[in-house]
Amino acid sequence: MKLPSNNLKEMNDVKRQLVFSINNEGELVDAGVIAEMGHLGKLYKYQLINEKKIKLISKIIHYLDKFWIIIPNDLELERLLWEEFYAFFGNEYEQLIDINHNINCLEYLIDLLEKGNLLNSESEILDFGCGTGLSTKIQTPYHMFGYDINQIVCEQAQKKGMQTLSEAEFQMIPAGSFDGCIASYVLHMAISREVIIKIKDILKPGGILVANYYKNIGAKRVNSILIEEGVYPQLVGEKTRYGSVYVYRK
Fold this sequence. Notes:
Largest sheet: 7 strands, mixed
Helix content: 25-40%
Mean pLDDT: 93
CATH class of the largest domain: Alpha Beta
């Protein structure tokens, strides 16, 4: 049997959707829910056999309309899962998403940022988890910087004209450097406590983080961390077309 490659055309030829896990899901294979197809790096790759049964798994999400992701209970493993997933699909990211929807989401987050901040042409904004740099499609007078842990998508963002920060540069950003930060469809990816606190630290006093959460995943955890840091969440909308949306003022 020829296994599908990472190529999207070949994946679209698969009658059933693909399932990814960082753990061996042998019990689900034995139960006829999924069929093992090999590996993508550290990820186990399966073909979905029984959608009704897989929906009964408590920690599984239907992701990007093409995949099912089985979320592990361990936070470090969850972080590794997302890193591995985008390491393989980063080059095809814009083929996996609804680009117009994502741009509209970014416009919405920037609008919330503007309503909460006294911004001007000198204001500096960080697009945290900038992906392929879709925020460059939005006309703003601000200085927009991008950061993403995935260098594959960062290279695509740079080609769009975005000034991106490397991992080392992000870690070296002085406290109080940015007027605002947006995080679009990224904080559900098990972002570490240290990085969440770093985002808070690099905001100026009164600076705002605006974030949306895919299917509300991770919101409770991030909110708890920021509350401990003295930054309180304001829920703008729950289960909106952009997920759950929060504003955080330092």
